[in-house]
Structures are given as C-alpha cells and as structure tokens.
UniProtKB/TrEMBL annotation:
This is Ribosome-releasing factor 2, mitochondrial. GO terms for molecular function: GTP binding; GTPase activity. It is found in: Mitochondrion. It comes from the Eukaryota. It catalyses: GTP + H2O = GDP + phosphate + H(+). Residues 68-353 form the Tr-type G domain. Pfam families: EFG_C, EFG_III, GTP_EFTU, GTP_EFTU_D2. Belongs to the TRAFAC class translation factor GTPase superfamily. Classic translation factor GTPase family. EF-G/EF-2 subfamily.
Length: 717
C-alpha cells in the first residue's frame, strides 16, 4: 500500500555537527537523482518536505522545531465537505507539492489508497508534516463516512487542535455532529472553515447559524465573504479590517492582495466590517476577563483603537478554553481562503505545551508516547504512528510497551508524508512519528523507554494518587487513554479460493485487524467458516477489495447479515437462544452454589453455564435489532417517493427540515431494511439525494417481524 520511498537517511553517529548541513544537502541531491522516476502517479513534489525554492533549512529545524512552534491538527467534516481538497491546497501553498491535486482526478497526496482514488472519498486517515511561516504542522486528513468513524476517533485522541470543514450550502450535516461530539470528548480546541463559498446555494449566514443552533457553539466571525456562490471573490479580515482579493487570472490562488478597507472605495463593506468587529470585541470580552479589563479600561470610548494583536491573543485564549470557535470562509477548490486558514491554525490553535496532560508529571523528561495507528508495508513490515508526549525517540533504541508488557526495538524513524516518508535520526516531544520494526505494538498502546522507567512513573503516580485518595492501580494510571472500539453491526462469511490458501487469508486478516481495530474476525464453531464483522457495507467491501489487491487473494463473501441481539422478557429461576446472538440487558442472580472438595473451577464454570442456559430456555425470548439514525437530503421534487420508500422499510420519520432549497428527512430505520439503500435512493432521485447513517440503539422487534426473521434463519422460508 505504501511506496518503498526513502528520501534521505542520516546516521548521527557518523556525522559531526559542524558538517551536518553540507552532508544534508549532498544527500538530498544524490537521493533525488535516484528516486526521480519512482514518484507515484506522476505527482510533482517539491524536492523535499522543508525545502521551498532555494531555501534549504537546517537539519535541526526539520527534526526538532521548538515545541511552541508545533501544531498537531486534524481536518474533520461530513463526507464531501472538501477536507481532502483543503489539505491539497494547504500542501501546495506551503511548498510541499508543485501541482494541485484533485479528488475527482484521483491524484491527491493524502488519498493514496487505490480504493480512495476510485471512490473519491477518504477511507484511511493520512498524516502529513509540513512547515508554514516558521511553524511545524503535523496534519491529519480524516474520513467523513460513518463506516470509518474509528479512524477519526483514534486520530483526535493524539491531536491538539482541529479544523472543522463545512459545506457552506449545507451547514452542519449528520456526520458533522458525530465528529464534533468526538472532538468534545477529547476536549479538542477547533476552528471552523466554511468551504465551498462559490457553490450554488452557499450561504455564510445560514452556515454560521447552523453552527450556533445544532452544535451549540459560539461562532467568532473572524472573516466575512465578499460575495457568495458565483459572485464569491474573496474575504474580509474582520480583525484587521482588510479585504483579501484573489487574482482572477491566477490559476493556482497563490496571487492575492491584501488591502485596508477605506471609506472612499468600500463604504458599505467598511461599515459592515466595523459592525462585525465591534460585535466580535464584545463577544470576546464577555468570554475573557483579561481582554474585558483591557477594553473597558483603555478603549471603551472607541473599539476601533483596540490593537489587532491584543484581539488575536484574546481569541487564542478563548479558543484554547473551548468557549468559542473562530469561523473563517473560502473555497478550497477555487483556491481562495486557504492561506488565511493556515495563518489561523498557527495563530489560534494550541501548541503541545499549551495542552494540559496530567500524566506528564509522572514521566518527567522520560519517553512517553501513544501508538494510535498501524499500517502494513510489504517491504518494511508494520509501520506504527506515535504521538510523542515527552522525551525523545531515536532509531535502534529499545522501547517498552506497557499494555503488552514487552520490550521491542525501533529500527528506523520516519516523518510521515502521506505514502512517502522522510527518514530522520531523532524526534522530540510534541511531534508525530512513524516507526519501523515494532512487531507487537497495536493501536492504543502506551510506549515508554524501559520497564524501569514505567516502574518509576508508577511510583510517582502512586504517591500522587495517595494524596488525592484515588484507588486506581499503578498500571491503570500509567496507561494513556486508548481508543473505544465500537461494536460491529454487519457480518458475513469469507472463504479463500482453496483450502491451501487459508493460511494466507488468516495472515491477511491478522494484518488488516491490526491496522483497523473496528474489523473483527471470528471462527464459526458450527461450520468452521471465517466470519468478518464490520461497521457497514462499505467497510466490508473495502476490506474484501484490499485482500484482493494487497494480498493477491480472490476471496468469496457470503451474504451480508445484520448483527442482532437477544434479551428476555420475564424473570425466571433455573435461553436457549433464538439466533445464537449475544444476550444483553439480562441480570443473573446466583442463589446458592455447593462445591465439594476437589471440584475444579472448570467443572464449576460448566455447571453454571448449563444452569444459565436451562433458565434462559424457560424465559420468553426477544430479538433486538439495530436501529439506525437516518438523514436524507433531497430536493422537494423527490421528497414524496423517498418518504414512500422509507415507509416500506419500516422507517419512523421524526421531522422534515428545510435546508436552503432542499428537504432533510430525519428519522429511524432498522439496519436490516437499509442494505443496498444507496442504489435505490440514487434511482428514486436521479442521483440528486444523499444520506447518512449512524447506529442509534437496539430495539425489540415486533412479534410478526421476529417470527419472519426466525423462519428465514431456520430455512423455513
């Protein structure tokens, strides 16, 4: 999946510090000659991440930027809001690519998987490291499709800030709510980018209001659009009262001018901007006491005199406290508004040292890192992404995995650049690293320098816990919060082309499971078949396709099945299950247990198990089916056929909202009734409608539907 591209390597033990820069330049030159014909898919990359034009930065600045100058951010949004296109423009303007990639053309940097390029969607999160105006930015482009929510979850866990991208014509959408809740859970400060301001139906005010109403957030309007839809020309910087206009003759958006707003040339725009700036000052003053004292003390007579730098500093504090979210706008596809967005990332989102991580006090300056993603490369083996919270990582150094209680050795250390990687001799706290050589480390594992380091940290944590009267074990205190893995809702059997290929299939599935913890693989005890369990139709389809492309196996999938649950309706003393599904919402009370001397624990477990099964058989049984939250966005002309189709699918419509010229149908529908829905919806609406799904809960089936399901499963119908 990843190209075996090694841009440069430096062995710090063989190079004196006085000659690092010279050696660095010569290595780059010779390396580029070797790899010139191996850059994938014909993209034009700049000579090396960190080299812009003739400016060759020092090796030290590439490897170890000051922690205050580091930004670890993610880009998150509903599917098709423009996340990947925004990332492409960011890479281009920062000098890391020489041509603009396009999702529709399948040549973007971060969507490097074949499945992503074919479908035009992001499936795996991709990490990119670049510099912008003296800042090091580690950026992760995340998926927007509900089947890959875990990818967003495990990336947000290690980020310090996020950019939420919105389609300005749609505002807050279904998956926007999901990723926003995930960011809330991890207490991530964020800024909002209203993308697609050039799109027909784009409305700045509508999008801002949807952020306020649906996300319950307080938007800080740092920009205003100059025109909307086809009339969108640029943006107004509210903080500095300047207008930014992009040259219409420029193909790539690099050429734009920043001009102060003047009464002579822009009276209406100046008036609107002044009102917006005054409102912004009042809003920030209400949220930040320090800024309020400044404004009321020195500038109460005239808000125009409030320095832009003072206002920006206050906005930074408010953003870090997650009391409000700065809002910017633009059009990534039309190359407008991306450079100011990058400026806002460095200005308003936090550095690693501005985030409060309690566990750092236990490790002092020793290594503490979290493994948050694993990829498999055919040549290099497992590649493990790590967020370094303290200390330093070097190649050829041993590390201790607290979760696995094992020690491993890092063979190589890389900076991530989508599917290309730059080899480096060390990396310090605050950065995101890519390591080679770890065979047992998995997603969510806590990494330290040694077992003795872990024990020392445990003693410090123990003493701190005693002061606070906490009862957690030492191991629990040391483990960084991992990633919550959602339960799969779909499953199907998978078979190799022949019995001889079963070991190859097992190996492929083992590698894919380590990459994707939301993929579950189990063995059916009755049939002996391998069963895949996933988060949705697309999820399982992608896994099947990857097995074929990456491991060369033509596997066969059984029919897609829904993951049901079971429960009982009345208490009993002594279920045989209806479908063999897991039982939930059942409490078991043990009234008495007689154990004779010499009775083994295995026999006790077997006895209790048989007793429980006997009791369950006496109870009335109930099948629980997964119920999905459904949101369908459709034009008014096609609303009636969509509603009629949902009624046939046992859908329960909660409300129908108006979104610009569209209607948004919100309701619930059983998962079993929604398989293949994308094709049906496309046919009903001539391809104009979209929909989003999310697991809501499990609900009891009515007797008739349950009887039909049992008959079908038993082969009677």
């Amino acid at each position: 999946m990843l190209s075996n591209l090694r841009i440069f390597a430096v062995n710090p033990r063989k190079i004196s510090s006085l000659h690092i820069n010279n050696m660095y330049c010569s290595r780059i030159t010779s390396s580029l000659k070797r790899i010139k014909t191996h850059v994938p898919l014909g993209r034009n990359y700049s000579s090396l991440p960190g080299l812009i034009g003739n400016d060759i930065k020092s090796l030290h600045s590439i490897i170890s930027p000051p922690v205050a100058k580091i930004r670890n951010i993610g880009i998150m949004a509903h599917i098709d809001a423009g996340k990947t296109t925004t990332t492409e423009r960011i890479l281009y303007y920062s000098g890391y690519t020489r041509s603009l990639g396009d999702v529709d053309d399948g040549d973007t940097v971060t969507d490097f998987m074949a499945q992503e390029r074919e479908r035009g969607i992001t499936i795996q999160s991709a990490a990119v490291t670049f510099d912008w105006k003296g800042y090091r930015v580690n950026l992760i482009d995340t998926p927007g499709h509900v089947d890959f929510t875990l990818e967003v979850e495990r990336c947000l866990r290690v980020l310090d800030g996020a950019v939420a991208v919105f389609d300005a014509s749609a505002g807050v959408e279904a998956q926007t709510l999901t990723v926003w809740r995930q960011a809330d859970k991890h207490q991530i400060p964020r800024i909002c980018f209203l993308n697609k301001m050039d799109k027909t139906g784009a409305s700045f005010n509508y999008a801002v209001e949807s952020i306020r109403e649906k996300l319950k957030a307080k938007p800080l309007l740092l920009q205003l659009p100059i025109g909307e839809a086809k009339n969108f020309k640029g943006v107004v910087d509210v903080v500095r009262k300047e207008k930014l206009l992009w040259n219409s003759n420029s193909d790539d958006g690099k050429d734009f001018e920043r001009k102060p707003l003047l009464e002579m040339s822009d009276p209406e725009l100046l008036k609107e901007t002044t009102e917006a700036r005054n409102a912004l000052i009042e809003q920030v003053a209400d949220l930040d006491d320090e800024f309020a004292d400044l404004v009321l003390g020195e500038f109460s007579e005239n808000f125009d005199l409030v320095p832009a730098e003072k206002l920006q500093t206050a906005i930074h504090r408010v953003t870090l406290a997650r009391m409000a979210v700065p809002v910017l706008c633009g059009s990534a596809l039309k190359n407008k508004g991306v450079q100011p967005l990058l400026d806002a990332v460095t200005m308003y989102l936090p550095s690693p040292e501005e985030r409060n991580y309690e566990f750092l006090q236990w490790y002092k300056d020793d290594l503490c890192a979290l493994a948050f993603k694993v990829l498999h490369d055919k040549q290099r083996g497992p590649l493990v992404f790590m967020r370094i919270y303290s200390g330093m990582i070097k190649p050829q150094s041993a590390i201790h995995n607290i979760n696995g209680n094992c020690t491993e050795r890092i063979s190589r250390l890389l900076l991530p650049f989508a599917d290309q990687h730059v080899e480096i001799p060390s990396l310090t706290a605050g950065n995101i690293a890519l390591t080679v050589g770890l065979k047992h480390t998995a997603t969510g594992d806590t990494i330290v320098s040694s077992k003795s380091s872990a024990l020392a940290a445990a003693r410090r944590a123990g003493r701190e816990g005693e002061k606070k009267h906490e009862q957690n074990s030492e191991a629990e205190r040391l483990l960084l919060a991992g990633v919550e893995i959602p339960e799969p809702v779909f499953f199907c059997t998978i078979e190799p082309p022949s019995v001889a290929k079963q070991p190859d299939l097992d190996h492929a599935l083992k590698c894919l499971q380590r990459e994707d913890p939301s993929l579950k693989v189990k063995l059916d005890p009755d049939s002996g078949q391998t069963v895949l369990c996933g988060m949705g139709e697309l999820h399982i389809e992608i896994i099947h396709d990857r097995i074929k492309r990456e491991y060369g196996l033509e596997t066969y999938l059984g029919p897609l099945q829904v993951a049901y649950r079971e429960t009982i309706l009345n208490p009993v003393r002594a279920t045989g299950p209806l479908l063999g599904s897991p039982v939930q919402d059942v409490a078991i009370t043990l009234h008495s247990l007689i154990i004779h001397p010499g009775t083994s624990s295995t026999m006790i477990s077997a006895c209790v198990s048989r007793c429980i099964q006997k009791a369950l058989k006496k109870a009335d049984n109930q099948v629980l089916e997964p119920l999905m939250n459904l949101e369908v966005t459709v034009t008014r002309d096609y609303l009636s056929p969509v509603l009629a189709d949902l009624a046939q699918r046992r859908g329960n419509i909660q409300e129908i909202q108006t979104r610009q010229d569209n209607r948004v149908v919100i309701g619930f529908v059983p998962l079993a009734e929604i398989m293949g829905y994308s094709t049906v919806l496309r046919t009903l609406t001539s391809g104009s409608a979209t929909f989003a799904l999310e697991l809501s809960n499990y609900q009891a089936m009515n007797p008739q539907d349950q009887s039909t399901l049992l008959s079908r499963r038993s082969g009677l119908t």
